[in-house]
Amino acid sequence: MTPKGYLIAEARVNDAAAYDSYKALAQAVIAQYGGRYLVRGGAVEILEGPWTKSPRLVIVEFDSPEQARRFYHSPEYQAARKAREQAAEMNMLVVSGIDNLV
After folding, report:
1. Which of 26, 39, 52, 91 could serve as a FRET partner for 102 with CA atoms 20 to 30 Å apart?
2. How many CB atoms sit inside 10 A of residue 71's CB?
């Protein structure tokens, strides 16, 4: 069984109105590529380690890491990234989940 792919992003928003435009574009592309939001900007509590308290944390589940990469590299998402350029600073990564253990 192929492990799920998880896209994890943290954003520091500089322009809320422009970021709202980016969010609308990104949400449509995430849905187009079969992504499902698991976390989208909820409260963050640091329990241990030198984390920075990111103002906005997002976790999206895709059917596979490859699908998450297809989403990220898609022309549609690249257009959304362009719209976000001045709106926010973002760190993003993709991580493979574990195979279902039975």
Report:
1. 39
2. 23
